[in-house]
Design a protein that fits this description.
Length: 214
Amino acid sequence: MSVVLIDYGSGNLRSAAKAFERAVAEAGLSDSVTVTADPELVRKADRIVLPGVGAFADCKAGLDALPGMRTALDEAVLTAGKPFLGICVGMQLLASWGREHGDHQGLGWIDGEVVPLDPADSALKVPHMGWNELDFTPGSHPLLDGLVPGQHAYFVHSYRFAAADAAHVLATVEYGGPIAAVVGRDNIVGTQFHPEKSQATGLAVITNFLRWRP
């Protein structure tokens, strides 16, 4: 099985790739992990990961700047139904729109928009940065298998995914109100937190993704 992490100039690829390689090794899997900007490798991959660090518009522009990548993604994820994981801004790009510094169109794979964090508690700082507890219903999705509510994950973000359908929010985090921590539908999932920085919790999420058969 091949896992590709898309390199579109967004950064954080090395640590994400290392986390996937570690998960493969510790779970005794035979998956190959490749970082690539080649749409043909994405089209042929068994699993696809879109990391992301930075501003929504910059990340979307970086993805759009790769010739043939959007077509390859649509074919692999939407047509062929291959498992897809978006991380942080990679998860936010799943939305219909991003509202960071203007209005910017996303992939539109999960209906919703990415809007500024506005915690009800004015003492909470933006960006939301650090370890926070995940809240979800055990058994609700294979990505969360083996985890328990209250496990900590590492967040760094100033915007949040506001899903149009609450059923697409698989886990939340409390930060002056509930914020989407994991979103998903069908063969598509995304985490607002960074699994590659979330130690045991993140490793479990990555391993679950590698084993997921949507």
